[in-house]
């Protein structure tokens, strides 16, 4: 008797638009290869960087010889308190009044999954979630998985390579009353373009008048400006204005805890009693997903945030990472100008955070992969953190060539 094959009908899935870039990069054997795909910080030698404050926290944790018991479903209480203080500010009114429900998440993705899962169940009658165009690729499948309907608001203006603020505001104003509006709190991924503080103020008014519900995704606190308080402006302003926001907070980038999967999901609610009810349902979203969260990343975060010396060291390191990226922006801009690259490249300097949106077409990206061994996502996004003194000249030359149409070898024309 032949053995039954159950899976012959499973089709090949497409590569992930971001993680697939790393896979392709790893397979490339060229000594010149450059990976500007995934948003993961690299030091000045192009190496993954473990923060000194994190290494010290690891030593402290190691010496404590902690057990490996399960955490509560919503996570480590000290981690939750300290994370919320970092995001909302210690003086946040709803925080002081005990009106913020917080749960530990599997980094930003897990936070978004809790948020959308909760909304799909407890925000009755509303299915539309408005997401910027473009946005982080994972937002869409996360929302669709739970049955939310993704709508797009205008964000990026191709002509100015800047923010289409009027378009954004109009689309949000025209969305059905009470819609869910997803906002990147800072360092918008993939464009590196954020609303100004005045823009945020206007958006707050528009959103309030339409009774929309805001979901903030904050994956880059500290990475945009080097200052964690400044980067929390939009979130804190909306909270001050009385919006009952939802927040997904990730420690992947600002603490370099990518694979540790540390983050939180939180909601501003109207009373401590409501907080308890909401938390009881958040638990029911989490339990069938991952039951209870991982320990180690949360231990690292709470060790750093609760120790003044470590906290200061970490803040210095965030600034150092942000400053290195800003320096690379300046260098890249100057090189592109020196190389007489057609077009206006000022946006490389004005964009903020980990990414730059180059404006390259997908075919130009394909040429960079194939002929220069330079890997970036097909939307033309580059991770500035992947650039360093060792590869920036080569990258600028490759970019300049592809824009001039000179990268493809003549024989293949
Ligand atoms: C990115 O956008 O590159 C990062 O947020 C990593 C990821 O998981 O996509």
TrEMBL record:
<comment type="subunit">
    <text>Homodimer.</text>
</comment>
<dbReference type="InterPro" id="IPR015421">
    <property type="entry name" value="PyrdxlP-dep_Trfase_major"/>
</dbReference>
<dbReference type="GO" id="GO:0004069">
    <property type="term" value="F:L-aspartate:2-oxoglutarate aminotransferase activity"/>
</dbReference>
<comment type="similarity">
    <text>Belongs to the class-I pyridoxal-phosphate-dependent aminotransferase family.</text>
</comment>
<dbReference type="InterPro" id="IPR004839">
    <property type="entry name" value="Aminotransferase_I/II_large"/>
</dbReference>
<dbReference type="GO" id="GO:0005739">
    <property type="term" value="C:mitochondrion"/>
</dbReference>
<dbReference type="InterPro" id="IPR015424">
    <property type="entry name" value="PyrdxlP-dep_Trfase"/>
</dbReference>
<dbReference type="GO" id="GO:0030170">
    <property type="term" value="F:pyridoxal phosphate binding"/>
</dbReference>
<keyword id="KW-0032">Aminotransferase</keyword>
<keyword id="KW-0663">Pyridoxal phosphate</keyword>
<feature type="domain" description="Aminotransferase class I/classII large">
    <location>
        <begin position="32"/>
        <end position="399"/>
    </location>
</feature>
<keyword id="KW-0808">Transferase</keyword>
<dbReference type="InterPro" id="IPR004838">
    <property type="entry name" value="NHTrfase_class1_PyrdxlP-BS"/>
</dbReference>
<dbReference type="GO" id="GO:0006533">
    <property type="term" value="P:L-aspartate catabolic process"/>
</dbReference>
<dbReference type="InterPro" id="IPR015422">
    <property type="entry name" value="PyrdxlP-dep_Trfase_small"/>
</dbReference>
<dbReference type="InterPro" id="IPR000796">
    <property type="entry name" value="Asp_trans"/>
</dbReference>
<protein>
    <recommendedName>
        <fullName>Aspartate aminotransferase</fullName>
        <ecNumber>2.6.1.1</ecNumber>
    </recommendedName>
</protein>
<dbReference type="Pfam" id="PF00155">
    <property type="entry name" value="Aminotran_1_2"/>
</dbReference>
